[in-house]
Amino acid sequence: MAGELERVKEEIRRRSDLVELVGHRVSLKKAGKTWKGLCPFHDDKNPSFIVSPEYGHYRCWSCGAKGDVFNWVMETQRVDFIEALRILARETGVELPQFNQGEKSDSEEMELAMAEAQSFFREQLRSEKTALHYIEERGLDQSVIDHWEIGYAPHQGEALAVRLKKKGFALATCQKLFLVEEDQRGGYYDRFRSRLMFPIRDERGRLVAFGGRIIGAGNPKYINSSDTPLYSKSRVLYGMDKAKESISKEDQAVLVEGYMDVIACHRAGVTQAVASLGTALAEDHVRLLKRWCSKVVVLYDSDDAGKKAADRAAAMISEAGLVAKISLLAPGEDPDTLLKTKGAGAVKVAVDQGISPMDFRMAMLNEKLSADDDSYWTEVVQVLATAETPLELQKYLIPVSAQYPGISDRQAAAKALERMVQAERKRLKTVVGRRSYTEPEESLEKVESIASKLVGSERVLFRSIFEPGLRQHAWQFAKFSPLMQTDKAQSVAQVLAEVGELPEAENWLNLLEDGEVKDYLFELALESREPIGIRNLEEAVDWLTKEKVRREARENLVDHGDESLRAFLNKRKETNKGSKDY
Questions:
Q1: Domain of 520?
Q2: Which residue of 7, 164, 317, 462 has the fewest CB atoms within a 10 Å radius of its CB?
Q3: CA-CA distance, 490 to 184, in Å (whole number)?
Q4: Is residue 368, in this structure, part of any structural domain at all?
Q5: Which residues contact 356 (CB under 8 A, 6 or more apart)?
Q6: Strands (E), 258-390
Q7: Angle at 271 between CA 267 and CA 273, to 5 degrees
Q8: Helices 159-166 & 106-127, crossing angle to 10 degrees?
Q9: Is pTM, for the whole model, over 0.85?
Q10: Residue 182's beta-bridge partner residues?
Q11: What total number of domains does the chain contain?
């Protein structure tokens, strides 16, 4: 079975286009034989992320992230290897053998239970007149219902529990999925009752949770699944599975507040709309958006809660290095009502009219207070301290300082106000517990290159393996461990010797069993460098050969028992420890 698994892995690697896969999340530019972009795994300011289609690997020279197509899917989609294997097999059309003929895994059992609940909700909607009437009033036709897989949870208290038990699912497991709840007598009842049901899928389309909207009177209006083994509400955005391609194409996401808002935006042609559910926007939500775009428009309600939430969301988005815009709808409006009353064009206009967070904060402040109020000047300093650039600060500084009561010298007022803003910024930096959204890049440990492990001639020799015209010649020396000077180079050579003759397969590096040596060689393969010529290789081999002769001569002298020479060489060795060739 292990051999079959390796065969499948290699077939998936062969069919996968790593550049295309990574390109969905990272803007890549051609750089010789590789592609380069900003690393998605840390707050990269200068492109340090390399993707090699030749070797099927990616590498960040700043934070150390590295791997192949399987690592990429595991890291970006937060799945284990088996799930990554399944995802890539589906995308590449590779048929997977039955690796496990035994009982289903816990995650498989949970996914099947969720699918059964979804089927149940869809069936119930077809025969529930009250829910169908509500849907009709909201303007949702059958195509919308099918596209968003909307269902209905009946009012009977145990209908889903009975269905799941009849299908053989353990209700204790279903309780973990927020589908049922245990009563005081040890029985189970449905979590969702008399509710229009919205399936929640993660960005790759996996059904992970449900949300329900009450039909008729009752509270709460909405119930969302709590965190489960399949679902973390701080990591999933509703509609992301359907919106991600549009987000990537437009380089912009539209963040709204709920299910119906997302659906209304998509119906209006704003197919980049997504929503956080049952929680405020979280850092993981922003990280998810950052993988797909560089701009986010926050389209929230204009009530006090909506304004505060929009301001907070915009601050998080900006701190993540994304461009944030805020667009508040008129009082009493949401995307759904706007679509009904004014049409799709009005929804698009609302998105396009988004303003910067600073414009928004100043507008909110001027709406609440006038320059004659003492508290205005305390708050305006706090607002100006959030300016993202010196130019943005200067845009407001002069006009605001001109309103300061009792001071005729506007230039002096502007300078005084600027000093107050700088003091506020320093105060914010020292507030206990305050931190930026991402750690500063200076705090990241730079990856220790293989160059620090090998002497220069060893590095040239191993790098020559990856030069088409030198491969065969270099291979014969690279697998001869006695030629190497450092322990690291000897271990690499020993692994290559076990391979034997140079493999013809382009992806021969993937065949190496020693993970550490494989990583070292991939690093060398992906290093930015000047091409190596035959003369460089010959000089490296000549130097290593001479050093080998010198080492053997010294060892022979020591073996003859000259204790004074032994002491001298040991002292010299300690003195020169850590020295490099070049």
A1: 450-575
A2: 7
A3: 67
A4: yes
A5: 324, 325, 326, 392
A6: 273-275, 295-300, 323-328
A7: 100
A8: 130
A9: no
A10: 188
A11: 5
